[in-house]
Design brief:
The chain is mainly α and about 70 residues long. It contains three helices and no strands.
Length: about 70
């Protein structure tokens, strides 16, 4: 449980990291263990996503197009 609290890794990443030291560990057993100790959900981190903004209002007849380089 200390590993999860210290690293804050998602379930699959934590499973991959712990399987070297706990060979019989399965994804479901790790998930049930995290549920039992009430740390199965990672805390929400502020600043991950930019805030949502509304589109600039345009008069009828105009179309808003977003373009991104790929």
């Amino acid at each position: 449980m200390a590993f999860r609290r210290d690293t804050l890794l998602p379930l699959d990443d934590g499973l991959y990291a712990l399987q070297a030291t706990i060979p019989n560990l399965t994804r479901s057993s790790l998930h049930l263990c995290l549920l039992r100790h009430a740390i199965s959900r990672l805390p929400k981190v502020e600043g991950d996503k930019p805030g949502k903004r509304a589109f600039k209002p345009y008069p009828i007849g105009f179309v808003h197009i977003d373009i991104a380089e790929g």
